[in-house]
Design a protein that fits this description.
Blueprint (H helix, E strand, L loop, with lengths): L2 H16 L26 H15 L4 H11 L6 H10 L1 H25 L4 H4 L9 H4 L8 H19 L3 H20 L5 H27 L4 H21 L6 E2 L2 E2 L3 H29 L8 H29 L1 H32 L10
Antiparallel strand pairs: 1-2
């Protein structure tokens, strides 16, 4: 695809995507990368597939648009209730595993997405018209799909846990939920099939690799600290990488087609979550040593309050952090606080309430 055509296609949508009065930061000192061109005469099966779904969507099943939007939104927000519940109530090690898969996959995907810098399908072909409100939230790079990464890592690792616990039906339902989320991104017209396939593959692959890693650290406890430190250092390296690397600088009507600064914000939020997951696992191992117990009166109250608090964290905390700390540190702070809430704060309070109910000392034990 020629650069002229990319700019022409972008101009058709740019005002709607970015909104009136959009201003861009001064990034003129950053090196410009050439736009990746499609091979002349090459297939565009991915675009044709999206156009086929678009015709089906607009002609026969427009009522499915709100449902697919809800499926997509749940997969990057309230889906975190699943590992939180498992961590707090059922099996801490399983919850730790699920959240680690999510953290590693999300960080890896952020680095990959900001390396490839692939534009959205409606920029490649103006016939692609995203459905509903999807275009207003899908303004960044396209490959791989972040929603697919979230769904495959969280649904996928939970399905793996259920399979190990012989809950086969629930495991199948969770895998189907992950696949449905990926399909919703195609159905809504905001991602190509390859965006979804690679994103889903990342999550499913890490589901098995992290399971093997934790199996090894459980068999060799002396390696756990090295595993956690290595994960945190890789995350820090990823944050440095996305801060210093060059990005495409394509302007349409004086405005950037995709603002690298905004993309870095999202990348930093995704990668910083992994640092906090590694840190939270260490804090629990060293000091809290939480283990789920049978829920009684005080613990049930704490659990309900914890769930309500998690809803508030997911729904409102990000905006508050950005407003008071700024867009870049605010996103990092939000990731830290969200993981801290799930893996440290609520388990600590649950342990204290259980100790109080049993008449045991309320100190948090230190690991030997």
């Amino acid at each position: 695809m020629s650069e002229r055509r990319v700019l022409k296609n972008a101009a058709l949508f740019f005002g709607y995507v970015q909104g009136p009065g959009y201003t861009t930061p001064n990034l003129t000192q950053m090196p410009k990368w050439p736009i990746i061109k499609e091979k002349k005469g090459g297939w565009k099966m991915d675009i044709e597939y999206l156009l086929f779904l678009q015709r089906i969507r607009e002609t026969y099943v427009p009522f499915l648009i709100p449902f697919m939007e809800a499926v997509s939104y749940f997969a990057i927000s309230y889906i975190l209730f699943i590992p939180a519940y498992i961590y707090w109530v059922k099996d801490k090690e399983a919850g730790r595993y699920i959240l680690t898969v999510w953290g590693v996959t999300n960080a890896m995907n952020a680095a990959l997405k900001l390396t490839v810098c692939c534009y959205r399908p409606w920029i490649r072909d103006p016939r692609v018209m995203p459905a509903g409100d999807a275009i207003t939230t899908a303004t960044g790079y396209s490959f791989p799909s972040g929603h697919s990464v979230w769904s495959s890592s969280l649904y996928g690792s939970t399905a793996y846990y259920c399979h190990k616990k012989r809950m086969k039906v629930l495991s199948v339902i969770l895998v189907c939920a992950a696949l449905l989320t990926g399909f919703s991104r195609n159905f809504l017209g905001v991602h190509t099939p390859q965006d979804v396939i690679v994103g889903m593959s990342e999550g499913f692959i890490m589901t098995f690799l992290i399971a093997k890693a934790y199996r090894y650290t459980d068999e060799h406890p002396e390696t756990m600290d090295k595993f956690l430190l290595g994960g945190a250092l890789l995350a820090v390296a990823g944050m440095v990488y996305i801060m210093v690397k060059p990005y495409p600088m394509t302007y349409v009507n004086g405005a950037l087609l995709v603002d690298p600064v905004k993309m870095r914000y999202d990348g930093l939020q995704d990668i910083s979550a992994l640092i906090m997951v590694m840190g939270a696992v260490y804090v629990d191992k060293k000091w809290i040593q939480y283990q789920p117990v049978a829920m009684k009166g005080p613990q049930i109250v704490v659990l309900i309050a914890g769930g309500a608090g998690l809803y508030w964290v997911i729904t409102y905390l990000r905006g508050i952090c950005i407003e008071y700390a700024g867009p870049e540190p605010g996103r990092v702070l939000f990731s830290f606080l969200m993981v801290f809430y799930i893996m440290v704060l609520v388990p600590f309070v649950l342990k204290m309430s259980a100790s109080k109910a049993e008449g045991a000392p309320q100190e948090v034990g230190a690991a030997e």
